[in-house]
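question for whoever is on the cluster today: can someone run the full assembly for these? two chains, 568 residues total. i dont have access anymore since they changed the login thing
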Amino acid sequence: MYEIWLMLNIVWESLLAAWLLVLVLLFVFAGLTLAALSRRGAAWRAAWPVALGGAALVGVLSFLALPGLTLSSLGELKYWVDWLALVGLAGGFSLVTAALLWPLTALLKRQPN
Amino acid sequence: MQERKLDEGGPAADLPGCASADLQRRRWLRAVSAAPLVAGMAAPPAKAAMKTNARIVIAGSGLGGIAVASRLMQQLDGASVTIIDARQKHYYQPGFTLVATGVWPVDKVIDPTADFIPAGVKWIPEMVAEFDPAANVVLTSGGQRIAYDYLVVATGLQLDYAQIEGMDVAAIGRNGLASVYASPEAAVATWTALDTFRRKGGQALMTLPSGPLKCAGAPLKMTFMVADRLQQTGTLANSRIDFHTGLPTDTVFGVKVVNDDVLARWKALGIHNHYLSKLVAVDPGARKATFATPEGQRETLGYDFLHVVPPMRAPDVVKKSDLAWKEGGFAPGGWLEVDKGTLQHRRYKNVFGIGDINGTPRGKTAATVKKSAPLVVRNLLQVIAGQEPDARFDGYTSCPLIVREGSAMLIEFDYDGKLTPSLPMIEPLQESYLAWLMKVRMLKPAYVSVLKGRV
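^ ran it for u. tokens below:
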């Protein structure tokens, strides 16, 4: 339990250190979602495959790039805990991508009235 | 001397040199950082604050002092909490090895102290000049006489470079002279020296004194990273790395399994060890270092790169006070005489110690403070309530031991040298990307959470 609490605090402090970027992303997400919700014909269902595809692509790219971006390399992943951590991080980037792409694509694919 | 009333406002809000926009931003960030973590996530279980009008003085504004102050402000109602420390800059010392090896820029290890002083705490920006525990009074460098009911000693320790003849901290960075400990500036200068050295290679002398040391893993990390930087530039083959330690044969670290693992790795890297060999003098201009055995035999060696790890002891203000150990192994260093379990002073029951100053068997790291700050506060609150302190510290400490750029081992252990991984799946002696990632990305956010009294 303590370790979970510690990890949540680490995430919180990390977000706080990048607060401007986090704020911009939140505004973009909120803006896109509100815009898509307020317009008729937003193609939420049709947007799913695009959002998932984009998220998967970003996930794979993150998985490959994150070790290098943190001054390490894939070759330094020595046991399953390392792989799990990297998958978790890449999954986080995927999630953010999906959250942004879904409303954006729903807007772009909306049916004209 | 003037006795300062403890309800006077602290100077945190009107520090010189802070532009108002910057102050506004910092205040906004502080307000946000105090908010619940994320929507829907519960804060730690709230306990009713203990009502008291106790006057609590904390000597020192490092991690230990501020972490204790944060927790006291959360758990006490009506107490007066005062921090005494002149330092305007707070150093994230666990990052010094990263700065000194070219991994981090220096600005990642320096923050204004004012950013971390908890709201409601009085900050006296002076140094403690004298402890008078018999009178429950602290005298400051500015001549103030601060009375207290309870005292937390968190002064940190003294780097005793003066024990090394000819050593000049200002010369770090020139002529191959390096030392990671002295300051962020010294860490930057150490990287300058290492960066120059690695281009050509040559003779590297690494050192480790005997006696209590803060972050005892740092000299080992530096040695691993010197070898790695030489390897990266292709100059390891025409270089020689000698590790001189004042410790006995086959000893470079206090935990045997870790010690043996490190020695095996160094053997593979071709690092040569010299035991009972203490750095006693240096001539930076001539690039000569002199080592001595316990029997007094001296040997002077030339170097292209020398990493100096100074002997460490308690600051004079503690060492010369009645708070220091009077006998036993901690007496020569003047360390604070606390019970290693409760961290309460053994003779002055209204005094507690936290961090590097404690005369305890192990653990002069940020991880030790993380684990012991809640315990010190719990025990202090019990003493305020007239009870006996019941929480006992197991000596937990941790060392993310960098073995090369991109890989580290996450080693956690207790007073007995027993490995105590926080998570069962962590293998302490497994070199790992995750341990590296923790060192370079996750431990500073964790450290800040400790400062804020949340973890």
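summary bc i know u wont read the tokens: Chain B has two domains: 2-157+314-393, 161-312. Residues 161-312 of chain B form a domain with the FAD/NAD(P)-binding domain fold (CATH 3.50.50.60).
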